Amino acid sequence: MKNPLLRIENLCKSFGEADVIKGVSFEVYPSEVIVVIGSSGTGKSTMLQCLNLLHRPSSGKIFLEDTEITAPGMNEDHVRRQMGMVFQEFNLFNHLNVLGNVTVGMTRVLKIPAAQAKEQAMAELSRVGLADHADKYPAQLSGGQKQRVGIARALGMNPKVMLFDEPTSALDPELTGEVLAVMQQLAADGMTMVIVSHEMGFAREVADRVIFMENGYIEEQGTPDQVFNTPKSDRTRAFLSVINRMEGV
Amino acid sequence: MEFLTSAADMMKFLIPGLGVTISVTAIALAIGCVFGAAMAVLRVYGGPVARTIALVYSILIRAVPVIVIIFILFFVISEVIDLTPFMSGAFALGFASGAYQTEIFRGAILSIPSGQMRAARGIGMSRFQAIRCIILPQAFRVAIPSLINEISLVLKDSSLVFVIGVPELLRRAQYASASTMEPLLAFGCAALFYMAMTLTLSKALEAVEKKFAVNF
User: Fold this and answer.
1) Is A243 exposed, middle or buried (0-12, 13-18, 19+ CB in 10 A)?
2) Chain B contact present for A160, CB below 8 A
3) Which of A80, B62, B142, B202 is the most buried (most CB within 10 A)?
């Protein structure tokens, strides 16, 4: 098997007294799509934001390719540049138009010349189907469109891995489809992705591996078929039965 | 000075003062804006020492009448550094306005959702880059209505520098009043000029506000 792109070793994160992540280890291989599921408040989002150091891990190690990014003295900005992050609440830059949202990181962070950045940004916007909306401002877009801009913004940085923090949770059900379709296309293009999501259908269809998190630990992981159809852990079974009842499966 | 008996002549006499008033105001606002934005950033994002310095600046300056600051600069500081009355006045007003603008910008920065900072850091921006390219441009837009108010306050406060002999609008009006014994005409014309400036400015800035409005 190839070398892992990301290796997480015994990651822990506490906020004051509260231990949120209590020792999580897993590996992400190139072009792999991992979907992290679990109940609210089990530390999925915190874990994801630890991966690109938006939250500084309390202990444990994270390796990006062969570099330990949690090593002291590591340039965090340089690390984050290599990982795209998509947020639940989109967090588009409200004072910039769609094109500006995608190019600002390219020109300011990667120092790509404006003309070239624009060209690349338009290519990313076409990829998410929003090239026609390049001149609009975030306030003029629907939620689904905003999230696709969020994805294009992250892709513009040409990241090694994309992290998705509940990308469809803030969307109306009818708008989630367009975002999931873009993500599915990305997966098909071979992008490495770690996705925190409640979209079980999507996980089943697109994930190479599903990780079920519970109470700050990884309770169970495996292929979608293993986790969804033959869960080993009682907690996984209980969680899935609740979800299935909600989805009316 | 018989030639100052008509309103038209009086206005002609006052016009050079108008230029001085506008320059003092413009310099004061520019200084205040730089100070205010910098101090606000320190208040919100600075370490304990920087935060304290910015806080003390804002509290102390706002606790002292502007005229006292003008006197301190003119009588005390200008002994050490060579400052003309004009520059003493403009700096004093700028210093004072900076304290108020600190509070304006601080409120504006705090109103920007925290996700903006996270998203900026998420694409690899440094804290400083995120503040400069993402937070401040949005905070500035949020601050525009309060800044418009501050501009008209500074414009009117600029009349205070007449006490140190800067030949601005009020100074010239007082001079004209004393020499013609026509205070109503002199100060009435000055008042008209102040009103015209304030109203024109706020109309112009409302247009700016509309142009830069951000929707969240």
Assistant:
1) middle
2) no
3) A80
Are A165 and A88 within 8 A, CB to CB? yes
**How many Cα atoms sit within 13 Å of A150 on the Cβ side?**
30
Across the interface, do B126 and A93 touch by the CB < 8 Å criterion?
A: no
pLDDT of residue B205: 84
Closest-CA distance of chain A to residue B107, Å: 18
The fold adopted by the segment(s) B2-211 is MetI-like fold (1.10.3720)
Q: Which of B121, B122, B138 sits opposite A95 (nearest CB)?
A: B138
All residues of chain B having their beta carbon less than 8 Å from the beta carbon of residue A52 are 122
| Per-residue pLDDT at B48 | 96
Write down the pTM of the prediction: 0.89
What is the C-alpha to C-alpha distance for residues A206 and A184, in angstroms, rounded to an integer?
7
Calpha distance B175→B179 (Å, rounded): 6
Q: ipTM of this model?
A: 0.92
pLDDT in tens, B160-174: 999 999 999 999 999
How many other C-beta atoms are found inside a 10 Å radius of the C-beta of residue B207? 9
Contact A105 B124 (CB under 8 A): yes
- Strands laid side by side in the A18-28 sheet: A18-28, A6-15, A59-64, A67-68
Kindly report the nearest CA distance between residue B215 and chain A, in angstroms.
6
Is the model's pLDDT at A245 over the cut of 90?
no
Q: Is residue A36 predicted with pLDDT exceeding 80?
A: yes
**A105 lies within 8 A of chain B by CB:** yes
Closest Cα in chain A to B215: A139
B123 to chain A, closest Cα gap in Å: 5
Give the dihedral of Cα atoms A209, A211, A212, A215; nearest 10 deg.
Answer: 180
Is B214's pLDDT higher than 90? no
Judge whether residue A249 has pLDDT over 60.
no
Q: Which of A48, A82, A95, A140 is the best substitution to test chain B (most B C-beta atoms within 10 A)? A: A95
Burial class of residue A181 in the structure, from the number of CB atoms within 10 Å of its CB (0-12 exposed, 13-18 middle, 19+ buried): middle
Q: Which band of pLDDT confidence, cut at 50, 70 and 90, is reported for residue A1?
A: low
Average pLDDT, integer, range B132-161: 93
Please choose, from the candidates A246, A249, A236, the residue with its C-alpha nearest in 3D space to the C-alpha of residue A42.
A236
Q: What is the pLDDT of residues B102-137, one digit of tens each?
A: 999 999 999 999 999 999 999 999 999 999 999 999
